Each structure stands twice: as structure tokens, then as C-alpha cells.
Automatic annotation (TrEMBL):
SUPFAM superfamilies: MFS general substrate transporter. Pfam families: MFS_1. Keywords: Cell membrane, Membrane, Transmembrane, Transmembrane helix, Transport. The chain crosses the membrane at residues 62-82, 94-113, 119-140, 152-176, 182-205, 246-264, 285-305, 317-335, 373-398, 410-435, 447-465. The lineage of its organism: Bacteria, Pseudomonadati, Myxococcota, Myxococcia, Myxococcales. This is DHA2 family efflux MFS transporter permease subunit. It is found in: Cell membrane. CDD domains: MFS_LmrB_MDR_like (cd17503). Residues 1-22 are annotated as: Disordered. It is a multi-pass membrane protein. InterPro entries: EmrB-like, MFS, MFS_dom, MFS_trans_sf. It comes from Corallococcus soli.
């Protein structure tokens, strides 16, 4: 199925020049993935260090979710402009500058003296990430032949999985022999190496003129995203008075409605909501958002469960946590063949059922739970999540024309990051409720409600995936070719 004729796009992104070979697109995918490696290394290491930062800054562990959500908020706010910026100034140039901003902000994070400063500099990191993630995906999708898109996306995400694999034990090791700022300083050599790889292997694609920037739409979207995420962050935990929370929620709803009306009347809106008319894109975004709520909450909840609830040290917790990344890493080489054999629809339905169940399992981890059982559960969970997101991220582009890729990539990043942020806030809220809203010690039993809740939310994606036709995405998964 092709996109409906009345769907206009924000930018035109088909690259000019010769079509890249499979090997060339693979090298570009791996080079661009160096940025994702740096992002994931940073975020997973920070998650492991949250209990240490709680002591260093003298704040409640639950409030430290601000260090995670501030980054995501900045990313989600600037990301709507990323497609236009990439088309206007060139994807490779924008990508390189974004990496430079991220590295500089990492250094500033290491010099933070308070939670406020850390949140500020994490926000600056998010501005860099806002351009790295969607522009990187844009480069990969435009560099790969359409029938090789699943393989290209797997190569694109595989190096990024090394970040979560190394992040937790690296954070534990750093906290054992040095101080927490080195968690951020490690991004400097990684970022410089990544910038060299991008300059070496990513082509300088020439983009057509994207036209005028949708300033009104960007302003409305920025306010809507900020207030929506602000309402989710402050809901139910007493950070601000309830009248303020209500005011934030009303502003969020009002600006969201105003943006929807604007986007449907504007030829080139900064976030093209008409793309949701495409069934595969709609299922990917809406179903994927529900699953990502669980993904966002897990890196926040697991380190607290292991280090505060079970009393483990940072290194021990980090070594166990890499089970999730090991499973995800193991899935990537087999995901394309599995999707080709089973199809996108069946892959999404089955992986969602197992992912939701495995997301909830840590609710039952106790001091006496065998460590091998915990590690095995996390490995299997990582495998299924990786399969879920490989299928979800790829099927989004199945029925979109090439010129819609930039708009779709931008909208996808905003949707995904908002889901991650809401997931962190939701997990924090459930933990706050589970301990009665006070400063009660975080025993393992207090994590029962949070993990069960995020598992339930993740499972709600299943009915959305069941609405897809049996042959959804066949032309990009290689299934149709294999049958022929």
C-alpha cells in the first residue's frame, strides 16, 4: 500500500547522485551508529550511577529521574526541526555538529556541582541528540536499497547495542576506582572517533531546497511537547501544587489541539501528522510508543531495585544489567531472517506478548532470587525487545515514498522520545505510589507495582499490531521476494 495522495511531506530527501552499494550503505550505517553508541553508553552508565548521584547531590533517588527526562525533553522539543535543518544544511554536516555539541555538553555534565546544573547540561546534551538520532536514521534510510532496509537498520542499531552492553559495568568500574564525573568524560574519545568515522564513510548528500521553515508550527509543537512532558513529570509526586499541574495540563491540551489544526492546514508542517493515515506507520508509532514506555521506565527502575532494594554494589548491578544488552545484541544478526520467515505482523504480535511479560518479571526479584535466573530473564527480555524494535522501526517505512522519509523520521523520533520520557515519569509515579508517597525505604516489595504497571502498558500495543494486514511490510522484509 502506498501513502494516500493527500499526504504532503515536510521535506524532500531523495539523495542526488549515484545509488550506494550494499557495502557502502553498511559502512555508512555503522559510522552513523557510532553516535547512537555514544548516546546509549552515556544513558545506561548514568542510569547505573543514579544511586551514587543521589548521595553526591543529597537528593531523593526518585527525583533523579529529572537527569534522564531533561535530556529526552530537549531532544523531543528540537527534533521537529531536525528534518528541515538536515535538508537545509546537509545531513552529514548537521550530524557532525550535533556530535560536537553532545561531546561538549558531556564535559560540562562532568563538572556539575548540583542536580540543577546536571539537569541544565543534560538538556544541552539533548539538543545535540535531537539532531543526531533523526538525522542519523535519515542518512541510513536514504543510503540503503529499499529491499535491504531491514539489514541496514540492523547494522545501524547493532553497534549502538554495544553501548548498553558496556555502559552498566563501565559505570560500576568507574564508580569503584574513580568518581562519577568520569561517566561523562568517557564520551570524549568515543565522540571524536565517531566524528572521524562519519567524516570518512558518510557521503555528503545534496538535498533539495526544503522551503520555508514552519515557525508557527515549531513554536506550537515545542510548547505542547514541553507541557505534556512537564505534566507527566510532575503528576502525583508533589513537586508542584496541583493548581499548577492543572494549568500545565490545560496548556498542553490547548496547544496540542492548536498544532493539530495548524498541521492539517499547512502544506509543509514541522511534524506532518497526515503520515498517521498510513496503517504501517501508525501501528509502528502508536504501538511502539506503548512498548517504549516500558523501555523508558526499566533503566530507571532496575538500578534502584538492584542497588537500593537488593543492596548490591554499582559494579555488581552493572554486570547483571548487561544481560538485557547481551540479549539485544544476540538478536540483531537473526532479526532480518526471522522477520523474513514469519512476517512483520506475526513478529510484532508475538514479540510484544513476550516483551510485556518479561518487562513485568523484575517485580518478583527478591534478595533470595538466584542471580543466574535474574541474568537469564534479562537476556531473554533483551532479545525480545530487540526483535520488537527492529520490526517496529523498520515497518514504519514500508509504505512511505522516499520523499516522506525525512518527515517520517522526525515524527518517529519525537513520538519515541516522548514515550520514553512518559515511561520514566510513569515508573517514578508508580514507585512513589508504592511507597505511600513518603520517604519510606525502597525495599524489593515496593517495586512490585511499578514493574507490573509498565508491563501492562507495554501489552496494550498488541491489539494495534493485530490490525495490520498479514502481508504488511512484505516488500521491505524480503518475504515477497523469497516466495517469488
Amino acid at each position: 500500500m502506498r501513502i494516500e495522495k493527500d499526504v504532503s511531506v515536510s521535506t524532500a530527501t531523495a539523495p542526488t547522485g549515484p545509488v550506494r552499494s550494499t557495502r557502502g550503505s553498511r559502512l555508512a550505517s555503522v559510522a552513523v551508529a557510532s553516535a547512537l553508541f555514544m548516546e546509549f553508553l552515556d544513558s545506561t552508565a548514568l542510569s547505573t550511577a543514579l544511586p551514587t548521584l543521589s548521595v553526591a547531590f543529597g537528593t531523593d533517588p526518585v527525583h533523579l529521574k529529572l537527569a534522564l527526562t531533561s535530556y529526552i525533553l530537549a531532544l523531543a522539543v528540537l527534533a521537529p526541526a531536525s528534518g528541515w535543518i538536515a535538508d537545509r544544511y546537509g545531513p552529514r554536516r548537521v550530524f557532525m555538529w550535533a556530535m560536537a555539541v553532545f561531546v561538549m555538553a558531556s564535559v560540562l555534565c562532568g563538572f556539575s556541582q548540583s542536580l540543577t546544573q546536571l539537569v541544565l547540561f543534560r538538556t544541552l546534551q539533548g539538543l545535540g541528540g535531537a539532531l543526531m538520532t533523526p538525522v542519523g536514521r535519515l542518512i541510513v534510510v536514504n543510503s540503503a536499497p529499499r529491499e535491504k532496509l531491514v539489514s541496514a537498520m540492523s547494522w545501524f542499531t547493532m553497534p549502538a547495542l554495544v553501548g548498553p552492553l558496556l555502559g552498566p559495568p563501565l559505570a560500576g568500574l568507574i564508580l569503584g576506582v574513580a568518581d562519577w564525573p568520569w561517566i561523562f568524560f568517557i564520551n570524549v574519545p568515543v565522540g571524536l572517533l565517531g566524528m572521524w568515522a562519519v567524516a570518512r564513510f558518510v557521503p555528503a548528500l545534496r538535498q533539495p531546497d526544503p522551503g520555508p521553515f514552519d515557525k508557527k508550527g515549531f513554536a506550537l509543537a515545542a510548547v505542547a511537547i514541553t507541557t505534556l512532558m512537564g505534566a507527566a513529570e510532575t503528576a502525583g509526586i508533589g513537586l508542584v501544587p496541583w493548581p499548577v499541574q492543572l494549568g500545565i495540563a490545560l496548556v498542553a491540551v490547548g496547544t496540542l489541539v492548536a498544532y493539530v489544526r495548524h498541521a492539517l492546514r499547512t502544506p509543509r508542517p514541522v511534524l506532518d501528522l497526515r503520515l498517521f493515515k498510513v496503517p504501517t506507520f501508525r501501528a509502528s508509532m502508536m504501538g511502539g510508543a506503548l512498548v517504549r514506555m516500558g523501555l523508558g521506565a526499566t533503566p530507571f527502575l532496575l538500578p534502584l531495585l538492584f542497588q537500593v532494594g537488593l543492596g548490591w554494589g554499582p559494579l555488581e548491578a552493572g554486570l547483571v544489567t548487561i544481560g538485557t544488552s547481551m540479549g539485544a545484541f544476540a538478536c540483531k544478526p537473526v532479526a532480518p531472517a526471522l522477520i523474513r520467515r514469519v512476517g512483520f505482523r506475526q513478529t510484532l504480535i508475538a514479540s510484544n506478548l513476550l516483551t510485556a511479560a518479561l518487562t513485568a518479571v523484575p517485580a518478583f526479584f527478591r534478595i533470595g532470587t538466584p542471580v543466574p535466573l535474574i541474568i537469564g530473564t534479562l537476556i531473554f527480555s533483551g532479545f525480545m525487545r530487540s526483535l520488537q524494535f527492529t520490526a517496529t522501526n523498520t515497518v514504519a517505512y514500508a509504505d512511505l515514498p522516499k520523499e516522506a522519509v525525512s518527515s517520517a523520521s522526525t515524527l518517529a523520533v519525537v513520538t519515541q522520545q516522548m514515550a520514553l520520557s512518559v515511561g520514566i515519569s510513569f515508573g517514578g509515579l508508580m514507585l512513589h505510589v508504592a511507597r505511600g508517597g513518603g520517604d519510606v525505604r525502597l525495599t524489593p516489595e515496593r517495586f512490585l507495582l511499578p514493574f507490573l504497571a509498565i508491563g501492562l502498558v507495554s501489552s496494550l500495543a498488541g491489539p494495534l499490531f493485530r490490525r495490520l494486514p498479514p502481508d504488511a511490510g512484505a516488500q521491505i522484509g524480503g518475504r515477497a521476494a523469497a516466495r517469488g
